[in-house]
Design a protein that fits this description.
Helix content is about 5%, strand content about 40%. By secondary structure, the chain is mainly beta. The longest helix is centred in the middle third of the chain and has 6 residues, at about 90-95. It is elongated and about 60 Å long.
Length: about 210
């Protein structure tokens, strides 16, 4: 799963502010496409079209930088050619590796939309001042995202819609919410194991910005 040795041509970007991931995941290599040193990639971003404008990408746990030679959409996959991956064996060694970009290169979002890494870990407080805990996971549904909050009431599921999410304070990592009627009167749910990664280029609508 680790990238092969080769002559990297780019330096890793600087580490950003504390609490923010320096890199975001945009895809995972599933293996070579056929018998050529072309990588077949599952996009893990809300913006798969970004691959066709990508100039460099960081690969694997070591974040090894590679220049992008060519990228093309092929069904639900991206076919990716990287400088320095010149043989089928080199492509096969990258199978399973994640593809990363610097956080500074994330696609801009419209007002009222936030990346998951900006929401996960944020404190959640009701309009009456009660702390519900922290967002630990985000579920994507057909209608809207759902924020899973763990705190004094156990697990609380908050729909990420404007009537519920009143304020998003990205700087102070805090959400002001007005839970739907009856939600907090339900029997407490025991917290579930967390499944969401906060480092992907995933985003969604989350009410009004602060």
């Amino acid at each position: 799963m680790e990238p092969p040795a080769g002559p990297p041509t780019e330096a890793a970007p600087e580490t950003p502010s504390a609490g923010e991931p320096p890199f975001l995941i945009i895809g995972r290599i599933v293996g070579p496409a056929g018998r050529r040193p072309v990588l077949r990639v599952v996009p893990l971003t809300d913006f798969p079209e970004r691959f066709q404008r990508l100039q460099r990408v960081y690969v694997g746990e070591t974040l090894r930088p590679y220049r992008v030679r060519r990228a093309a959409v092929h069904g639900r996959y991206i076919l990716l050619e990287l400088e320095g991956v010149e043989t089928l064996a080199e492509a096969e060694r990258l199978s399973g590796a994640l593809l990363w970009i610097p956080r500074s290169e994330a696609m801009p979002l419209p007002p009222g939309h936030y990346y998951w890494y900006q929401i996960i870990g944020a404190e959640v407080v009701t309009t009456s001042g009660e702390s519900l805990g922290q967002v630990v996971e985000i579920l994507r549904t057909a209608a809207h995202d759902v924020y899973i909050v763990h705190g004094p009431r156990g697990e609380v599921l908050l729909p990420a819609i404007e009537p519920v999410i009143k304020e998003v304070d990205v700087v102070n990592r805090r959400l002001i919410v007005e839970p739907p009627p009856g939600l907090l009167e339900e029997k407490p749910r025991p917290p579930r194991p967390r499944r969401t990664t906060r480092s992907g280029e995933r985003g969604g609508h989350s009410g009004s910005p602060s």
